[in-house]
């Protein structure tokens, strides 16, 4: 699943990323984004060529837009081998807060299902009568507990975040997540993209502060929709693996091993990821 990298020890692999530690150093991590694609919480047997590099480029592009938000990227990445450079980030190794900091500008996906059932998402009460894909009056913070590998993340109310990380850190997670989301939505909006939602992760800084870590505003962690299509009433025209999800739903019942993706689905998905990066970065 993960190749050996000279000078680094493999620590763990998530569904998409492989984690390495630089030999002889315990304060840093190498996050290597693979081309693996997951859907419905399983990794598919077919990679999407270039995906790891595109997600890494997206994270770096966004981090550069938030110079005032402390992040985990290290200044000196010269030790990263060329072979994995385009899909790697050398980061400060942090004690991660076990909270997925989800912000939603739109009610969709699992959030919409929870809203239908309870009238709220992660304990945040919402107006009645919202339809799937409706814009919320303002973005909301809907945290989830980051489950151990293999388990599903579970939406939690803000009080539970306070119990998990303490009051000051919980407040900081919420305020910073909302701030990053609002600013990112504005940047995306200027490029014809509607940022529907995103998931951020933070670590503890040591001095009580929080540090933005993991992937940031990538198409794996966020839903971007085409703003023109949305304005025309076509919702969910997205720049992520929706093509993969749709194909899987039509060709797989969710039991047993997932099937290989046809070349055409792979190519269209890769194009979609590429288009997002092009649209964001083109206006620079
Ligand atoms: P999934 O397979 O559902 O994506 P995952 O999110 O746990 O699971 P990956 O995203 O593939 O796995 O791997 C990245 C892991 O590295 C995450 O657990 C994330 O919390 C952790 N991580 C990211 N940045 C840092 C950091 N600076 N310090 C410590 N851990 C980090
Ligand atoms: Mg992850």
TrEMBL record:
It catalyses: 5-amino-1-(5-phospho-D-ribosyl)imidazole-4-carboxylate + L-aspartate + ATP = (2S)-2-[5-amino-1-(5-phospho-beta-D-ribosyl)imidazole-4-carboxamido]succinate + ADP + phosphate + 2 H(+). It comes from Amnibacterium endophyticum. Keywords: ATP-binding, Ligase, Nucleotide-binding, Purine biosynthesis. PROSITE patterns: SAICAR_SYNTHETASE_2. SUPFAM superfamilies: SAICAR synthase-like. The keyword NADP does not apply. It is an enzyme of class 6 (ligase). Gene3D superfamilies: ATP-grasp fold, B domain (3.30.470.20), Phosphorylase Kinase, domain 1 (3.30.200.20). Its EC number is 6.3.2.6. Belongs to the SAICAR synthetase family. CDD domains: SAICAR_synt_Sc. Pathway: Purine metabolism; IMP biosynthesis via de novo pathway; 5-amino-1-(5-phospho-D-ribosyl)imidazole-4-carboxamide from 5-amino-1-(5-phospho-D-ribosyl)imidazole-4-carboxylate: step 1/2. This is Phosphoribosylaminoimidazole-succinocarboxamide synthase. NCBIfam families: PRK13961.1, purC.
């Amino acid at each position: 699943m993960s190749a050996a990298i000279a000078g680094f020890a493999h620590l763990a692999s998530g569904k998409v990323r492989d984690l390495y530690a630089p030999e002889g150093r315990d304060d840093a991590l190498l996050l290597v984004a693979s081309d693996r694609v997951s859907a419905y919480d399983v990794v598919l047997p077919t990679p999407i060529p270039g995906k790891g590099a595109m997600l890494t480029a997206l994270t770096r592009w966004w981090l550069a837009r938030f110079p005032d938000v402390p992040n985990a990227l290290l200044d000196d990445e010269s030790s990263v081998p060329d072979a994995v450079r385009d899909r790697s980030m050398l980061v400060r190794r942090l004690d991660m807060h076990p909270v997925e900091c989800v912000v939603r500008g739109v009610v969709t996906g699992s959030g919409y299902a929870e809203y239908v059932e309870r009238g709220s998402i992660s304990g945040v009460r919402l107006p009645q009568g919202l339809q799937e894909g409706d814009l919320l009056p303002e973005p909301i913070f809907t945290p989830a507990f980051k489950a151990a590998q293999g388990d599903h993340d579970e939406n939690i109310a803000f009080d539970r975040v306070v119990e998990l990380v303490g009051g000051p850190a919980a407040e900081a997670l919420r305020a910073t997540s909302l701030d990053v989301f609002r600013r990112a939505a504005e940047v995306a909006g200027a490029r014809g993209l509607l940022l529907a939602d995103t998931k951020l992760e933070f670590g503890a800084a040591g001095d009580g502060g929080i540090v933005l870590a993991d992937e940031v505003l990538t198409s794996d962690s966020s839903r971007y929709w085409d703003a023109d299509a949305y304005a025309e009433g076509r919702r969910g025209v997205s720049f992520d693996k929706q093509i993969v999800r749709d194909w899987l739903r039509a060709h797989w019942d969710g039991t047993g091993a997932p099937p290989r993706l046809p070349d055409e689905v792979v190519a269209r998905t890769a194009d979609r990821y590429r288009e997002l990066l092009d649209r964001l970065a083109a206006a620079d």
